[in-house]
Specification:
The chain contains 6 helices and no strands. The longest helix has 30 residues. It is elongated, with a radius of gyration of 20 Å. The N and C termini lie far apart (57 Å). Bound molecules: heme C. The site of heme C has 21 residues, from helix 3, helix 5 and helix 6.
Length: 116
């Protein structure tokens, strides 16, 4: 094997290892996030424990997470964006209070409210 090729391959191996190391780290960090606790703390003025709007939430026109039509039409990206940036006059943004990992952890929780 010529030297240049050897160098390219070794660099690739190092890069791949580094990527898997960091992605493993972020999954372990995500596992430590208690999404239900975050939801109960930050969301439950408007979204109740079962994913339905609270009485206060109803006045604002809060989304019903048990509605299958909504579940199907909403992408994960849209959910993340809503939590991050909020909706004007309806829902406050959470980017100041929640990390990207915490917001990511809320997505499967919101999905779990879908009627089975
Ligand atoms: C002050 C009340 C309020 C709080 C607190 C609140 N929301 Fe909302 N949320 C709303 C309203 C109102 C809507 C409907 C907004 C709209 O139609 O754009 C909504 C919609 C959503 C949607 C659906 C967005 C879409 O694209 O259809 C998601 C997901 C969501 N909220 C998640 C959360 C999460 C997670 C939290 C807590 C971190 C939270 N909300 C806290 C009022 C609230």
């Amino acid at each position: 094997m010529n030297k240049k090729r050897f160098f390219v391959i070794t660099s690739l191996v190092i890069a791949v290892n580094a990527i898997s190391y960091y992605s493993e780290m972020s999954t372990t960090m995500a596992a430590k996030i208690n999404a239900m606790k975050l939801y109960n703390k930050h969301c439950n003025a408007c979204h109740d424990k079962k994913g339905k709007p609270t009485d206060f939430g109803k006045e604002l026109g809060t989304t019903d997470f048990t509605d299958m039509h909504w579940q199907i039409s909403a992408t994960d990206e849209k959910i993340v964006k809503q939590i991050t940036d909020g909706a004007p006059e309806k829902m406050m943004p959470f980017k100041e209070n929640l990390s990207a990992d915490e917001i990511g952890a809320l997505v499967p929780l919101i999905r779990s409210f879908a009627k089975k």
